[in-house]
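call fold(seq) -> tokens
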Amino acid sequence: MFNRGLYAITDAHLLPPKDLIEKCEAALQGGCTALQYRNKHAQAKQKETECAELSSLCRHFGTTFIVNDNPELAKKSRADGVHLGQTDSPISSAREFLGNQYIIGATCHSDLNYASKAVQQGADYLAFGRFFKSKTKPNAPLAKLSTLQSASEKFAQPLVAIGGISLENACKVIRAGADNIAVCDALFAAQNIKQQAAQFASLFIQ
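ret:
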């Protein structure tokens, strides 16, 4: 697994192909503990190329590399794991395909029952949210901080908070029990990505 801290998620609008590697490297230099490649619309060849490059980059920095939605791409690119939404491949199928050496994360929104099922099927970490207004997932159901608190008491697996997290509100989800904060817009839209990542990372050592 990855350490507590900043979990960076790529976005195709903020990170066009020409900027992807450079900006992700800046986030890694700033101290993010995990990086997830998320691109819903690129062609397969582009995804394979970008994932291979990011996988190599993350290994260089000792940062966990996760691929969104696609166990096959995760395995092909030598990623550390895959993150699965509730409408993606079943967690149990991904675990059977990938084996135990890969990390599997599960999107739980605000559903503790789903989180329990995800753990039973082999999920290594649980993602809850969105907790705040989100540009990346504006229509995702809103989760309460109390749900995160309940999850921290119920599950041994690391908890990732996602959705509209910024430097101004991140401490709220950390105090509620988040081991990691998943950030996209508030990181990659920053003028100085390395510095922004370092500021997020510093929230976990205060």
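The mean pLDDT is 95.
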